Each structure stands twice: as structure tokens, then as C-alpha cells.
Amino acid sequence: MGRADALTIAGGVSGERLMENAGYAVADVVCVRFNQGTRAVVLCGMGNNGGDGFVIARVLKQRGFIVRVALALPEGMTARDLKGDAAGAERAWRGETLPAEPGLFDGMAVIVDALYGAGLSRDVSGRDGELIAAVNAARARGARVYAVDLPSGIDGGSGEVRGTAVVADETVTFFRRKPGHLLLPGRTHCGRLHLAQIGIGPKVLAEIAPTAAANGPALWAGCWPDAAIDSHKYSRGTALVASGPLLSCGAARLAAEAALRAGAGIVTVATPPDAVATVAAWRAAFVVRPAADRTALAELLGEPRLRAAVLGPGLGLGDDVWPAIRAALKGDMALVLDADAITQASRRPDEAFALIKARAAGVVLTPHEGEFARLFPDIGGSKLDRARAAAAQSGAVVLLKGPDTVIAHPDGRAVINENGTAVLATAGSGDVLAGIIGGLLAAGRPAFEAAALAAWMHGEAGRIAGPGSIADEIAGALRDVLAKGCPEAKATFAGGAEEENVVATD
Ligand SMILES: NC(=O)C1=CN([C@@H]2O[C@H](COP(=O)(O)OP(=O)(O)OC[C@H]3O[C@@H](n4cnc5c(N)ncnc54)[C@H](O)[C@@H]3O)[C@@H](O)[C@H]2O)[C@@H](O)CC1
Ligand SMILES: Nc1ncnc2c1ncn2[C@@H]1O[C@H](COP(=O)(O)OP(=O)(O)O)[C@@H](O)[C@H]1O
Ligand SMILES: [K+]
Questions:
Q1: Is residue 328 part of a domain?
Q2: Residue 35 CB coordination number (10 Å)
Q3: How many Cβ atoms sit within 10 Å of the Cβ of residue 289?
Q4: Is the pLDDT of residue 344 over 70?
Q5: Do 267 and 413 have their domain in common?
Q6: YjeF N-terminal domain location, by residue (predicted)?
Q7: DSSP state of 418
Q8: I want to staple 314 with a disulfide (CB 3.0 to 4.6 A). Which of 91, 251, 383, 408 is the partner?
Q9: Which atom, in ligand 2's list, is nearest to the CA of 431?
Q10: What whole-number distance in Å separates Cα of residue 240 and Cα of residue 371?
């Protein structure tokens, strides 16, 4: 954001104008719910976030609110020491300013949090921590909290809580959302999020060329699995799902069903002999092939018409499994490596990553946090950073699961998924996701787009299936997701003012 501001200011829009627009945007959101006569306190910090706060205080006072500013400055600093646009905004404020202290929030209907925004660079502690605790306590007693740009204490780049953080009812941010608005726990601190345009134009967006975005149809509308009128099952694509033995064949059944629903024309389930009858009886639509051992599985994976394979759900952790995965990695089909296949790869990461990098067809790795730590033990940082680093290290598209699933391409592009709900936090849900990706890969969709679209379809399926659903029903709800059709595309990544899905990372 700092760079976006600087480029805009260099382009002739003053910082003061940006701050005025930002302040008005927040005041307008407050005024949707509250009227003249409302008691409001604006908590201002020492930087430009605080500067926005002074503008908000002025506008709310003009509109008849009873407003005071609670000014939180470092020891020894006074309002006269404020700098730049924040100093100008403070001078233009003609109301009451008090040194911030926790008691100032008592009895307020509205609290505006303008303590820290994008400039937060270290953990909040001491007096500021107490102020944040007091804001949250006042909210618990009924005050409505509006955060300026970010809830203070939330890191805009990572969504992490830096020590302690404000919990807001509404957050107004400017220009573009930041990763911290989408990643947890930041997302849950924002409350309702508003995006306001304050004069930072499309040329700036093109110049900063963000490589992160919220997951949405702009990325994958062209990959929606509509089959052409003249399609046949083979042209729609063949996928193979490798099952585990009888006691762990449920995972492959879920994945195979999801792959069929998501667009594969045919799905073969390769099954150890003890599970053949169970798998065959599960869905008449499955093609079931016994694979007595891993050599037989490797042979089935050599079938030339195969466009995609899903390996991992229930596959097994025995030493005999890796040769089949290795055979698949040496093959031509696109691959989803999930669950046990990720654990298998984590025992020999160098070999796995070399095989992934050497192949032409795409690979999607779908770790949850535990599997991620196993496969990429040395990678740290924000969820966005970690997914990107893992993609670069492995050569695969990495889908790092969770409520804020991140999908990263080795070239640095990444999307953050935002439509998942806790309905998905149920056993077998990840198998459904792996199957959806496999179905889209079988239909010829590129790995990054397939993974992003699959995460979105999975989220929608969870919403449609609703609370109380089990994984079988999430797979079943894919039919409704597809029946609703592809949602309207809004552009993603850099290039136009309408591209609200872009996340400004700098
Ligand atoms: N002209 C501009 O640059 C615009 C900036 N805007 C606002 O400006 C904000 C960013 O302003 P700033 O860069 O001044 O930063 P902040 O106002 O977020 O933070 C102020 C300063 O506090 C210090 N600080 C950081 N963490 C601290 C901690 N834990 N304890 C003590 N001190 C700490 C840092 O030196 C930081 O620069 C945005 O979030 C947005 O609200 C908007 O007005 C839009 C225009
Ligand atoms: N609270 C949540 N909100 C949104 N999505 C979630 C949540 N918890 C889990 N998920 C999603 O559910 C799936 C769970 O996958 P996984 O952990 O592999 O489970 P399993 O192995 O039982 O199938 C992932 O796609 C994950 O992103
Ligand atoms: K703030």
C-alpha cells in the first residue's frame, strides 16, 4: 500500500487528498448506522492511520456526532510532533483531543480505531496493548467498532495478530484489500469489510502488478467444466483414482465420485482385491480395476488415455507405495498428490521435487498444515509466503488447505480462497477436494486454474450442502454447484480499475 500511495502522490494526487478521501469513506460507513447526537471516540495513533482518524473525527462532528479524539502517542511526543499529512489533519480538527487512556471508551456508541494501519511493524505491547484491550472490552459491552484500513494489531501482509489486536465490527480499507484481510486470523478481526476508492488509479495497479488475488472466476471462468455438445466420455477426459485396501477405501470413493461430478468423463478406481466389491458397489458409474499390488497399480497408471490421476487418499504409508507414485510422476498424466502421497514424498523430497520439475504435465500438491510441515519443514512465514515458497521449491502448484486456503504457482502467482466454511471441516472433505481437482485436470484444465476452481467449487458445495453435511453430501452438492453455472467474472491480477480481487501486497 505504501508504494501505491507513493506512486499516486508522484502522479499528482496529493497525500492530503488521499487522506481526506479515506476519512470521508470511513465516516460514510459509520453514518449508514448512526445519526447526529451519537457519542463517538476516535482512537488516533502517531502515523497516517491516525491522520485518517482526525479527518473522520472532523467529518463526524460536522455531521452532528458528539466526538472526541483519544490520541495515543509515544512517551514524550505531542500532537505538534505529528508529521506530514497526519499533522495537517490534526490541525484541521477543531474538537476535543485527550491523551488516550482505557476509560475514554466507556459509554461510547461508536469507536473508530485509527491506531495502527499498514505501518504496523512490530508487536503491540504496553499502553497500546491496554488501549486495544479496552476497545475490545467496550465492544463486548455494546459499542460498535470501526477499523480504519486494518484492525490495529493485525499485520496487513500476513493476517497475523501482532501481540494483540482490535476486533472490529466493520473495517474500511482503501484501494485494494490486503492479504491480512483475507488470511486468518486477520479476516475474523475485520468484521464486515468495505473497500473504498480514494483516488489511487488503475495505472498504479498496473505498475505495482500485484501477484496475489482473492480466488474468483476471473482466474478460471474459462476453465469451467462445461462440456461441448459433441463431447464424449473420452474427450471429457479419463482419470484414475488409486484406492487403499478395504478399511481405507472410503477416501478414494469420495475422490472418484468428486472427479466424475467435476468433469471427468470416466473415472477408473484402481483397487486392492479386498476392496473391489465395496468400491464397485458404491457407484455404478465407477470403472473398477483390481490392482493386486503396487506393480499392478503402476501398470494401470501407464494406460495411455489417462489424463489425470489422484494419488494419496487412503493409499497407504508402506514402503511399497512409493514406486507406484514414482511411476506416475514419470508418466504423462496430470497429477494430484494428496494425503498419503504427500507423506510418502516427504520421506524423499529431493527425489519427489526433481521428478515433478522434470515432467511436462502439472502436479497439484494439496497439503493441510500437518502435511505441509512434513513436506516443507524449513519453510516459514505467512501462509501466502509459505505456499509460494513451497510451490517454488517443489515445482508443483501448492494448495495449502484451511479456512483461508492458498493456491500458489511456482511462478509466484497466488490466490486466497474465501468461500470455504466450517461445513468443510469434516472427515473426507479433503478427499472430495482432491477428486474435484483430478476431474478438472482430466478435463484438460491447467493445474493452477484447476486447483483454484476446485477450491472455489468445494467451498460452494459446502455452502449448498450446509451444516450437518458429511463429505458424501459435499461431493453430491457439486451437482448443484455445476447446475448454477459459472459466476460472473471480475478480473483478477493487474490491469484495470475494476479488478477488485487483486490484493495489494506492498
Ligand atoms: N497518504 C498516504 O500515505 C495514505 C495513507 N493512509 C493511511 O495511512 C496508514 C499507514 O500509515 P503509516 O505508514 O503512517 O503507519 P501507521 O499509521 O499504521 O503506523 C504509524 C507508525 O507507528 C510506528 N509503529 C509501528 N508499529 C508500532 C508498534 N507496535 N508500536 C509503536 N509504534 C509502532 C511506525 O513507525 C509506523 O510508521 C494506512 O493504514 C492508511 O490508514 C490513507 O490515508 C491513504 C493515504
Ligand atoms: N474451518 C474451515 N473452513 C473452511 N474450510 C475448511 C475448514 N476446515 C477444513 N476446511 C477444508 O476442508 C478440507 C479438509 O481437508 P483434509 O484436512 O485433508 O481432511 P480429510 O483428510 O479428512 O479429507 C480442506 O479443503 C480444508 O481447506
Ligand atoms: K486501524
A1: yes
A2: 9
A3: 18
A4: yes
A5: yes
A6: 1-206
A7: -
A8: 251
A9: 23
A10: 23
